[in-house]
Amino acid sequence: MFAHLDSLGLCLSLAAGLCHPSAGAQGPRVLVASSLREVAQGLDAQWQAQGESPLEISSGASGDLARQLIAGVAADLILSADIQWIGELHSRGLLEEDSATVFAQGGLCVVAPKGLGPATLFDVEMLSAGEARLPLPSSEAVPLGRYVKAWLENIGLWEELKGRITVVADARAALAAVEVGAVPFGIVYLADARRSDSVEILYEVPKDQAPVVEAALGVPRRSTLSGAGARLRELLLLPAGGASIRAAGLDPVQRMLSAEEASFSPKSSKHPSVLGPVLMVSAKVALAVVLLDFFPALLMAWVLARRRFWGRSVLEALVHLPLILPPTAVGWLLLLMLGKGGLLASLDLLLTFQGAVLAGGVVAFPLFVRPMRTALEAVDPRLEAMARSLGLSPLRAFVQVTLPLAARGIGAGVLLGMGRALGEFGATILVAGSLLGETRTLSMAVFEAYQLHDDRGALQLVGVCGVIAFVIVFCADRLGADRSGASRLGEAVNERTPGGTP
User: Fold this and answer.
1) Residue 109: CB atoms within 10 Å
2) Res 385 pLDDT > 90
3) In the chain, what percentage of residues exceed pLDDT 70?
4) Which of 138, 212, 229, 430 is the least crowded, having the fewest Cβ atoms under 10 Å away?
5) Helices 171-179 and 143-154, packing angle to 10 deg
6) For the segment 470-491, what is each residue's pLDDT rounded down to a tens digit?
7) In this structure, how many other beta carbons lie within 10 angstroms of the beta carbon of residue 336?
């Protein structure tokens, strides 16, 4: 026994050693905006060419990365698509002195899915024609949204288009919506469009019509490797670093932040009072998901509870897959299926209310099935057999005998599935976006309040979500806990049926 314990201890020690951060050579940590990831990858190649360990690259929204540094996360370099956040970090004293630098410039462009037509046929007035949605990140919190809003205001189209804007997570999500054919046009970063094989550039926004798109960097004071941040900054600002910037579709520049930019502090924007419309959309989506999922889930629960067949375990695993997969993975798969060339492209559901219902229905489906299956398994099949022996058809026996006995568990499944649909975010933001009054649910509103740095508004929305979730879970638990009627009938059948369990 002690030999086994020694072996176990050795295995645990090896595992701990492999998992410990110091088990291998650790490279500097670089926080990079999603739209600048290619720049960071080019910098990584140059860094490794000097015989150094690979960079630890962490990408995300510029605001999220800045908040990580504010919260105390250690990093050696930050590449931000938003110079306002670099100014915020500098004003807080979180960056090394004289390290805040603008290092790249870019532009905006209008793009369309590949094959739409030659760019010579496009005119900016076409943006306001028709009723097509315009996928765009928040114009209050995300740099691309601000740049596009400023351009549209300059050419007099903002008021016409703002009601058709569907808020997406970031610049890459705006590009993805065009790539899959969800919309006929999109306005994105020129650098992103040049790297994409799925869109064509219809129009490059003149630089005198929109603010200059700029990216900035900074060296955090709280670092993981002493001196690494300054070396990385110098490497990126050298001519070789400029090649990496050009390869990412940007123009290399080098200027220090102005005094005004370096002292800038983003003010939290008050999230608009949208609780009423958001609650209404959330309720509509949840009820529509119930209508979409109820009968397929009941049928699947019956199959899993009553039938034994080859491949049943595989079917059960597939049913529960959306419960395990990250919601963003589910959303991406739906995006591929609903987008241009996908199996369901003809349904035209992207960036619509119906798309939000489909995303919620797919993610919530396992939570409908599980309690329903448990409830059906609790009903003795011999009760149905007795009903059929009295002349009822199998369907009528199921409806008149099994369903009433399993009703509480089925109701619990409906509540849990509806609650999951209410809280869905990851798949919905990819498939349906966030349009006030149509696809903006409670979870979307929380995300947008966070983006706007409106902590009070986000807290209020989270409080509403918490109350709704508590009521749903409490009611579902109460419904699922009492199956005594089915149990008593099953015991009665056991007592009266020859050969039954005493």
Assistant:
1) 21
2) no
3) 86
4) 212
5) 70
6) 999 898 888 866 554 555 555 5
7) 15
Measure the CA–CA gap between 383 and 226, rounded to whole angstroms.
74
Cα–Cα dist 371/282, whole Å: 23
Distance CA 87, CA 213 (A): 16
Nearest CA to 83 among 175, 209, 211?
A: 211
Calpha distance 336→325 (Å, rounded): 16
pLDDT in tens, 324-366: 999 999 999 998 898 888 888 888 888 889 999 999 999 999 9
Give the Å distances, CA to CA, from 409 to 66, 301, 361, 412: 46, 11, 19, 5
Looking at residue 184, its amino acid is P
Contacts of 349 (CB under 8 A, 6+ apart): 338, 355, 358, 431
Q: Does residue 243 surpass a pLDDT of 70?
A: yes
Q: How far apart are CA 188 and CA 147, in angstroms?
A: 10
Of 142, 276, 294, the C-alpha closest to 213 is 142
d(CA 47, CA 166) in angstroms, rounded, equals 40
Which parts of 238-324 fold into alpha helices (H)? 239-247, 259-262, 275-306, 312-324
Give φ, ψ of 102 to 5 degrees.
Answer: -80, 125
> How many C-beta atoms lie closer than 10 Å to residue 317's C-beta?
10
Domains of the chain (ranges plus CATH)? 25-103+213-251 (3.40.190.10), 108-204 (3.40.190.10), 275-496 (1.10.3720.10)
Residue of 500 and 354 predicted with greater confidence: 354
Q: What are the strands of the beta sheet with 101-106, ordered from one edge? A: 56-60, 29-33, 77-80, 213-218, 101-106, 251-256
- Cα separations (Å) of 301 from 297, 316, 404, 477? 6, 10, 15, 19
Q: Give the whole-angstrom CA distance, residue 367 versus residue 293.
A: 10
- Check if the beta carbon of residue 224 is closer than 8 Å to that of residue 29: yes
Cβ neighbours of residue 480 under 8 Å, at least 6 residues apart? Answer: 371, 374, 375, 408, 409, 412
Average pLDDT on 50-78 reads 91
How confident is the model over 415-462, as pLDDT tens digits? 999 999 998 998 998 898 888 788 888 998 888 888 777 788 888 889
Sign of the Cα pseudo-torsion (329, 331, 333, 339, in order): negative
